[in-house]
């Protein structure tokens, strides 16, 4: 069979290398061309690669550029942070304060989210009364802004935060290594002799194949899982055959 030509997304040239780095189903790179668009860090199978608008990023720069940020201080969140939410906006706990009196709002407090920030109930009422005094009557066209009640803090890692802050136009995937026939033959030969190689054998496989320890570990895990499923299916078929004859 004729092998399909692989073109590098980074430089546009044909890939003749032994290894191809593939991001998503149809994006392929030379190992030397796949870099973070911000810091130029090389991206390989040992790290997570993010793609946005045709550019690749390391995890650190992707989160810095496109991750969730506090609506008050514009600083991002760490994975251990707990946050407060007000509609589509997300805040550090210490940033969740009334803009008028600077009082920190805690779970159970009533507040209003206005164009110019968060207001506790007392200051919100003052602003509303001032609007009435300035000839801005409350009407269906100018209704009073509804109060909300502050909920308990939630983890910044919760998936529920993502749709409110940032929608990724492209699916982000890990970089995957395309194994050649020689590497596959070596792994399959070792698997036939021992499906659960020890640490020493894995080190030898790293030297023999040039693959990373992570790729080798995942390959053996996937292979054992596939064989287990195949074994279960064969047993089920064998059990069905006597029943079919009767």
UniProtKB/TrEMBL annotation:
One of its GO terms (molecular function) is cis-regulatory region sequence-specific DNA binding. The keyword Transcription applies. GO terms for biological process: axonogenesis; neuron fate specification; positive regulation of transcription by RNA polymerase II. Its main location: nucleus. The keyword Metal-binding applies. Residues 170-230 form the Homeobox domain. SUPFAM superfamilies: Glucocorticoid receptor-like (DNA-binding domain), Homeodomain-like. Keywords: Activator, Developmental protein, Differentiation, DNA-binding, Homeobox, LIM domain, Metal-binding, Nucleus, Repeat, Transcription, Transcription regulation, Zinc. InterPro entries: HD, Homeobox_CS, Homeodomain-like_sf, ISL1/2-like, ISL1/2-like_LIM1, Znf_LIM. Residues 172-231 bind DNA. It is found in: Nucleus. Residues 6-68, 69-130 form the LIM zinc-binding domain. GO terms for cellular component: nucleus. PANTHER family: INSULIN GENE ENHANCER PROTEIN (PTHR24204), INSULIN GENE ENHANCER PROTEIN ISL-1 (PTHR24204:SF4). This is Insulin gene enhancer protein ISL-1. It comes from Nothocercus nigrocapillus.
